[in-house]
Amino acid sequence: MSIESQINRLRELLPSGVRLLAVSKFHPAEAIMEAYRAGQRAFGESRPQELKQKYETLPKDIEWHMIGHLQTNKVKYIAPFVHLIESLDSERLAEEVERQAVKCNRVIDCLLEIHLTAEESKSGWAWDDLLGFVQSGGFAALPHIRVRGVMGMATLTDDEAVVRADFERLMERRACLKEYFGEEFDIVSMGMSDDYPIAVECGSTEVRIGSTIFGAREY
Predict the structure, then answer these.
(1) How buried is residue 21: exposed, middle or buried, by Cβ count under 10 Å (0-12/13-18/19+)?
(2) Residues with pLDDT less than 50, the chain
(3) pLDDT of residue 118
(4) Can you give the pLDDT at residue 121?
(5) Where are any strands of DSSP class E within the chain?
(6) Considering only Cβ atoms within 10 Å of each terminal Cβ, which end of the chain, N or C, has fewer?
(7) pLDDT of residue 200
(8) Could you give the CA distance from residue 139 to residue 193 in angstroms, rounded to a whole number?
(9) How far apart are CA 193 and CA 114, in angstroms?
(10) pTM for the whole thing?
(11) Torsion of CA 205, 83, 58, 15, to 10 degrees
(12) What pLDDT score does 217 carry?
């Protein structure tokens, strides 16, 4: 199926209130433009320099989401234009996003990436560290960050019960955090090509889908 056909199929499958983020990392501008012509406007990237290059060459009404692990020394590349940093995963990174947002004279929307699994390779806040930072007023001291919700990745497994438990855990974490952030804390980004139906059932408001749309990545 073509990129356009896949996007249209996903739109039909996703319920109202669940947004499609097309994960375009490692894919060329031509593929992104095919998705763009199909009406897709939100794209996810994982490398700041690649994201910056695509921002400079592609239409300016695209919403660029940073979804990969973000090093503090790379925040400067995307701070002037990024629509949403979904991978805010530490106090140190939050402080750097604040510094760069001040330089750009803007407020940057972010999601709190929470570590859900036993897999060491996955990034994200440890829950106790995040809750302690929030409860101590850490984000209140960072006025150029607007925390919009949470992001998480489930265990890489064929066991649907394990995946569902990971997503349910993220929803529980979100419920605990919501009292600190209010009505704007309204995004739950979870679910990818292999597990998004379970994520939607558990309450996801945004699914991050790449290979289903674009095919195998071009590294």
Answers:
(1) buried
(2) none
(3) 74
(4) 67
(5) 19-23, 42-45, 63-66, 84-88, 108-113, 145-151, 187-189, 206-209
(6) C
(7) 98
(8) 32
(9) 19
(10) 0.95
(11) 10
(12) 65
State residue 35's pLDDT score: 97
Total count of residues recorded for the chain: 219
Instruction: Judge contact between 9 and 219, C-beta under 8 A.
Output: no
Distance of CA 106 to the CA centre of its chain: 19
**Cα separation, 120 vs 122, whole angstroms:** 6
Question: What pLDDT does 215 receive?
Answer: 86
Tell me the residue type at 182.
G
**Residue 98 structure tokens:** 């604040």
Count of Cβ atoms closer than 10 Å to residue 22 Cβ: 27
Secondary structure class of 66 (helix, strand, coil): strand
Instruction: Give one word for 152, left, alpha or beta, with left for phi > 0 and alpha for psi -120 to 50.
Output: beta
**Cα distance between residue 188 and residue 133, in whole Å:** 20
The stretches of 58-203 forming alpha helices (DSSP H) are 75-78, 91-104, 127-135, 160-181, 196-202
Total H helices, total E strands in the chain: 9, 8
